[in-house]
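Lab notebook: predicted structure, single chain.

Context: the supervisor wants predicted structures on file for every construct in the current expression panel, including those that have not yet been purified. This is the next one on the list. No modifications to the sequence; it matches the entry in the shared construct table.
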Amino acid sequence: METLLTVIHVLTCAILVLVVLLQSGRAADLAGAFGGAGSQTAFGPRGAATFLSKATTVLAIIFMLTSLGLTIYSSRTGGTGSVLEKTEQPVQEQTVPAEQPSPPPEQTPAPARPAPSR
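Prediction complete. Output recorded below exactly as produced.
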């Protein structure tokens, strides 16, 4: 179910971006650039709703519904909490203390030589 909802969400998102980019802006003609064509209204001239504007509205509603659906589905299936909480903690290596070097064997002093007589 989550996969289907995610696929619908991504497709809706991509189509919504394309539909918005295909639309021309309000007052995009030459008169709109200089303040004409509906300067008496608050938001400019309002023409008839085109197919692209209706498609934008429908796709925006679908986008919002799939967003809410994914959020609700995620919270009900144990999706609460951080992703980091679900990962395993790295195993710390047990280090064996290095062996202490054994002290050098004690050397016996060489026998003393007799002092030369004078």
